[in-house]
From TrEMBL:
Any Pfam family: ICMT
Name under which the protein is recorded: Protein-S-isoprenylcysteine O-methyltransferase
PANTHER family: PROTEIN-S ISOPRENYLCYSTEINE O-METHYLTRANSFERASE (PTHR12714), PROTEIN-S-ISOPRENYLCYSTEINE O-METHYLTRANSFERASE (PTHR12714:SF9)
Matching PROSITE patterns: SAM_ICMT
Organism: Grus americana (Whooping crane)
EC top class, as a word: transferase
An example Gene Ontology CC term for this record: endoplasmic reticulum membrane
Catalyses which reaction(s): [protein]-C-terminal S-[(2E,6E)-farnesyl]-L-cysteine + S-adenosyl-L-methionine = [protein]-C-terminal S-[(2E,6E)-farnesyl]-L-cysteine methyl ester + S-adenosyl-L-homocysteine
Main location: endoplasmic reticulum
EC number, as in UniProt: 2.1.1.100
Length: 220
């Protein structure tokens, strides 16, 4: 199953390259296909490098959640309908370029966070502290407390800017913001339990990185 998923992602990436190479009206869709397939494949690859013990079929994040799959399907439906009804809307190259830059920035930031955290990174929030679990505050973690979430947030919105999907740009922004607000609060409760005052001091000094999300409130 791993080989099948990896092969499928490679096929999608190749198709995206073919669409991107020409000057056709579908070039921006090619950028999107390359971005999406590379994101999911690199999630598995970096996990294999960083934390092979946690590696599984789910590390591709292709079946992240029903909501995630629904969001992807919604973006494809919007792109197709608007391509048929308003084809000129999908030819705004400067806007798609902005989206592509957001995608590249977001994915690079997320992968940098994963590599910096090393074996401390896991796709699933951990409820028990392992012997090797340490608080990472260096590198991109010196910029944001949750750089992997920041990267994913801007990557997800960037994919819709790239496709020139106005409805999904708004929908992705709101849904991603809500998801990461809840995820960060859940994760920070665990981190405070793991590291106590060390994490609270880090929390005071470094922002979460996401707009209007401060993380879990601590009663002093």
């Amino acid at each position: 199953q791993i080989a099948v998923r990896a092969g499928f992602l490679g096929f999608a990436f190749g198709c995206g390259l073919l669409l991107s190479a020409g000057r056709s009206a579908w070039r921006h869709l090619g950028w999107y296909m390359c971005s999406l397939s590379l994101f999911h494949y690199s999630e598995y690859l970096v996990t294999a490098i960083n934390n092979p013990r946690s590696l599984s079929l789910d590390s591709f994040l292709l079946n992240h959640s029903f909501e995630y799959n629904l969001a992807a399907l919604s973006s494809w439906v919007e792109f197709t309908l608007e391509k048929l009804l308003f084809p000129e809307l999908k030819q705004i190259t400067w806007l798609s370029t902005v989206g592509l830059l957001m995608v590249i920035f977001g994915d690079c930031l997320r992968k940098a966070a994963m590599l910096t955290a090393g074996s401390n990174f896991n796709h699933i929030v951990q409820n028990e502290k392992s012997d090797t679990h340490t608080l990472v505050t260096s590198g991109v973690y010196g910029w944001f407390r949750h750089p992997s979430y920041v990267g994913w947030f801007y990557w997800s919105i960037g994919t819709q800017v790239l496709l020139c999907n106005p409805i999904c740009v708004v929908g992705y922004a709101l849904a991603s913001w809500r998801f990461f607000r809840e995820r960060i609060e859940e994760e920070e409760i665990t981190l405070i339990h793991f590291f106590g005052e060390e994490y609270l001091e880090y929390k005071r000094k470094v922002p979460s990185g996401l707009p209007f999300i401060k993380g879990v409130k601590v009663e002093l």
